[in-house]
Write a structure and sequence with these properties.
The chain has 591 residues and is an alpha+beta fold. Helices cover 28% and strands 33% of the residues. It has 13 helices and 35 strands. Strands 24-23-17-18-19-1-25-29 form an eight-stranded mixed beta sheet, sandwiched between helices. A hairpin with a 2-residue loop joins strand 33 and strand 34. Helix 3 packs across helix 4, helix 6 packs across helix 7 and helix 7 crosses helix 9. The N and C termini lie close together (8 Å). The N terminus is likely disordered.
Amino acid sequence: MTIDTNYVFCQTEVMPSLLVAAIDFGTTFSGYAFSLLHEYKKDPLKISTTTWTTGSRNLVSLKTSTCVLFDPTEKFHSFGYEAEEMYSNLALEDKRLDWYYFRRFKMMLYNKMDLTRKTLIEDDKGKKMEAIKVFSTAIGYLKDQMLINCKKQMTGIEESDIMWVLTVPAIWDDKSKQFMREAAEMVGICRDKLLIALEPEAASLYCRHLPIHKDSDSSSFGAFKSGEKYMVVDAGGGTVDINVHEVKDNGSLKELHKANGGDWGGTKVDTLFTSLLADIVGKDVMETFSSENKYDILDLLRDFETKKRIISPELDEKVTFNIPVSLSETFCEKNPGSNIKDVTSKSKHKTQIIWIREKLRIDAQVMRALFDEICEKIVAHMKELFMHPAVQDVSSILLVGGFAESPMLQTAIREAFKSKNVIIPQEAGLAVLKGAVLCGHEPQTISGRVCRYTYGVEVYNEFDKTIHPQFKKVMLNNKEHCKDIFHIHVCIGQIIEVGEPQVKRRYNVTNPDQKSVEFKIFTSHNKEPTYTTDIGCTYLGTLTIAMPNTSKGLDRGAIVHMTFSGTEITVTGVDKDDPERAVTTKVDFLG
């Protein structure tokens, strides 16, 4: 079941972990960072990262590609740029068919309602493997690389000294968040040494340490003062994650609107680029080229990734791409007698695109248009948010994430919201990763949440023919009752204290001889559902309390309450006559 909530969180004391290590597991790129406690105390922004180098273009970056390669026996081989290079080389030698290659697989967790521990995902060729194995292997690789790098720089660090932080999108449901937690635990990260950080919140924390504003005394302080409200737009490769925060007097953050967003990340632009090429050479040609020439398509997309970062509204010159010979060869094989240059000159882009041997020159207007649709969707969603009463007076927009480095997106947001203060940190693409490290040093104690769903248990009520449908009438102890009643514990929009038992409800047995009482736990998309069978209601699990002593007959029962902690929900039932007889169950979102 998908559980999602809206946060209010405040600061606590710095955790005693000697070192905090963060893993930012992104759709397109992933990386890790870490910092020691004593360094954090001197300078919170003194955070160590690593550099990664691609093989074909010798590009150096602070993150590596999110892809993982397994050999034919399903044994892990490599991750990141190394996996890309190896798989491309296997393709050149026609040896790739038995290998497993997963690329940009994080998005499969986005809104996947049927996600379980046994869920399978398909690799580059449609071959399947358990998703939990792919994700845990990737996390394990980044964990091991961090430990190797860390031990090169210092001695005496034990794994027990490390607090790990793993980032996830705020718009993911708790089923996906639990999946990521369990994937991390599978590779040896202890549960009590693992913090799940929401990406926009991590970015927000990072930016609060940046000396953006200057006061009259020329001293610097964080991006936002007490009482200020701002929108965090975390634009990554796969998703755009949006949160709205208010800075409280004590420096804590209160969320004003539930986490929201969509799959409008930068990879959508990549897809439109390949579609543009397919418009020219033909969809069948592009599919064959991409399938049979892995090294070349990888090189082409890396070239586009580099060019994508410099495309701006002011660009007025053609953009040149080096096109692999194999693409022209594939075109000729599929279209005997045709010339790719002639086909280009006769296409709908004939005045905007020129194909000269292995060079493709594309008008700036066409390149800018690749960004239009996705930028419009992001802006439209933000405008809708600003109409919400709790968001109307938000004065600033904090734009972070890898896609935030695009001049096209930056300009689109600045033009659409001229009355807002748009802040883009210099390391926008690293804001989440470095902020996640700070989350480990400054763990956020969530004091309250605004429920996005309604939770309750299924009960029987006395039957009332004026309101209850006849088909729900049942007889219990010779009395008419209505079944499937949704008895609410917490409802949508209600503020709940995290880690503390919520409203306690008392329930009585329905039969004087019953020796146990069962509580079926439900959630609903509706604020006030009537029946557990209503549309939008979902069964979460059952809590059973033994009541062997039947001497009190119907004058027996239990007190039930729910506790919300982190991404977990526990339900506790206590025998009202015997407080020692208590049962607690943890909601398992993965079933």
